[in-house]
Amino acid sequence: MDAHSRGRADDIDPADQWVLNPQTGNYELRLDRSAGQSSSSAGTPTGRRSTAANSKTRSGGRTADVPGQRRRRTADGPGVPGGAGAGTPAGSAGRRKRKPQKARKKALTWTGGVTAFVVVGTGVAAYAYYEHLNGNISTVDVAGAGSGGFKKDQAINILVIGTDKRTGDGNEGYGDKNSPGHADTTILFHVSKDRTNATALSIPRDLMTDIPDCETNTPEGKKVIPGQRNVRFNTSLGQNERDPGCTMRTVKEITGLTVDHFMMADFNAVKTLTTAIGGVEVCVAKDVDDKRSKLKLSKGTHIIEGEDALAFVRTRHAFGNESDLDRIQTQQQFLSSMIRKMKSSDTLTSPSKMLDLAEAATKALTVDTGIGSINKLRDLGTELAKVNPKNITFTTLPVIDNPAEQVKATVVVNEEKAQPLFSMMQNDISLTEVKKKEKEAKTAQAALLKGPRANAGDVRVDVYNGSGKTGAAQRTLDWLQNQQGVYKSTNKSNAPQVIEKTTLEFAPNQADQARKLADLMGLPAAALKQGTKDAEGLQAMVLTLGGDFKGAGIPITGPAKAPDGVQKVEADKRVCAK
């Protein structure tokens, strides 16, 4: 069985599955497994075929026109190499063909859905919509840990998990022996509502955090796994029978972002997917000979796949300070290169690569039941494909060394830098479009907030909690009085009802106070509600916290600028590992 027929019956070469549709003049993918089907029957619409450009590609070690050059026998006699006359019914030769450029656009539409998104770091995903691949996909019921399904008109949050469980051929020497696996590499992939950008947030495995209670499926049935306090993040998976739903819940506790779905893969994912696309380009700034990961590369650029690719994303001792945080940056650089390769014309116009990729990805992939079919993955992939690689930014959760340890082995969240980053993701602000958002924010504020500001000590405001979050008003009051000098503020407890958006009501003669409070809290212009009558005496403004309230001191609008020192890797940039 050759490299193109893994898992497919009858040893059918992918090139033999492309036939000419005489009705359209385009080549189409035939998904049935009968190599003897005639071209004319292949042209019958089934809703499962896609057109592709007649471009050059590598197929089975030979150069071939797409579709392949293998000769077929038709009902009319010996076939000819796939082309205008192969199996064409009488009278169809004069039909007008569509222009090749249109066919190419259709090919890219199809393949864009297939290769929409790949996130690796021993965790990889790829998408295809061939029904015969459904059986390759493993699923887990995460018992309500997700959102219930992504929506096309909302932001999407996908948790990509790479486990160190020793599964697959040749992986006996990796990971922890006899371990059920950990959340070894975890990336929260946030795609904006308008699909113009995405942020991929890596979460260090050695992060000390709290793991909440989680319902999970065990051999004895469903049960609740008790949570733990102050433990390593990577134990949110595998340990104590925890499933990926536990990791999803833990990520929500850390970031405040609800995870829609998860995708999980083991070591084999990197090996099989990089091989399927013909390797990934990496650059190293020095000679590397890491005995532990078995990565050996000379200084410069290399194309790596299989075991070499796995060694590259696993190495901790080849680059930087030999820490897990440095390994994360190496993985992000690798991921960026892999995304570029998958979106390149070399991959998108190669049916053999696409079919190998689909086969490898679905076999390596475990997902939640909400996206546990080819059709659902196709829909998700179509959404993710809309993001241009230049607007995909990888970053790492800001952390500091664990102050409770003398020997530094774990880390804790750097709240000062992490909370603004979480706010940016919650408010759909991309790390690649910060300048644009900042300009828009200044324009809006200039229109409604132009004018003098009062001193913080002169701001008088009553705070109501309409957010539905317990203690929000008191935490805001403490922050205003203790950190901002707004001493004339009062906690008025709960608002009459829960509201979606935070509001600040003020009188015309309190406009200077409103501007000052808006500056302090990062209130959007839409939150300011000016009345018609002036305030009298000691009358205070009314601040009602809404569902968009993320925490005291966290701007409602989300910061227009990423915190200083937040590490970033942009997917369209080529970077050498150091």
Protein model, in words:
Mean pLDDT is 75; it is low at 1-20 and 24-130. The longest helix is centred in the middle third of the chain and has 19 residues, at 324-342. By secondary structure, this protein is α+β, with helices and mostly antiparallel strands. The strands form 10 sheets. It has an 8-stranded mixed sheet with strand order 8-21-16-9-10-11-22-30, with helices on both faces. It has a 5-stranded mixed sheet with strand order 26-25-29-27-28, covered by helices on one side. The chain is 26% helix and 22% strand. Helix 4 (267-276) crosses helix 5.
Helix-strand blueprint:
Elements: E1 18-21, E2 26-29, H1 39-42, E3 51-52, E4 56-59, E5 62-65, E6 73-74, E7 77-78, H2 100-114, E8 138-140, E9 156-163, E10 183-191, E11 198-203, E12 208-211, E13 214-218, E14 221-225, E15 228-232, H3 244-255, E16 261-265, H4 267-276, E17 280-284, E18 288-290, E19 295-297, E20 300-304, H5 306-314, H6 324-342, H7 345-348, H8 351-364, E21 366-368, H9 374-384, E22 392-396, E23 399-401, E24 411-413, H10 415-426, H11 434-448, E25 460-465, H12 472-483, E26 488-494, E27 503-506, H13 511-521, E28 528-530, E29 541-545, E30 568-570
Parallel strand pairs: 8-21, 9-16, 11-22, 25-26, 25-29, 27-28
Antiparallel strand pairs: 1-2, 2-3, 4-5, 6-7, 9-10, 10-11, 12-15, 13-14, 16-21, 17-20, 18-19, 22-30, 23-24, 27-29
Helix pairs in contact: 4-5, 4-8
Structure keywords:
single chain, 578 residues, alpha+beta, eight-stranded mixed beta sheet, five-stranded mixed beta sheet, 13 helices, 22% strand, disordered N terminus
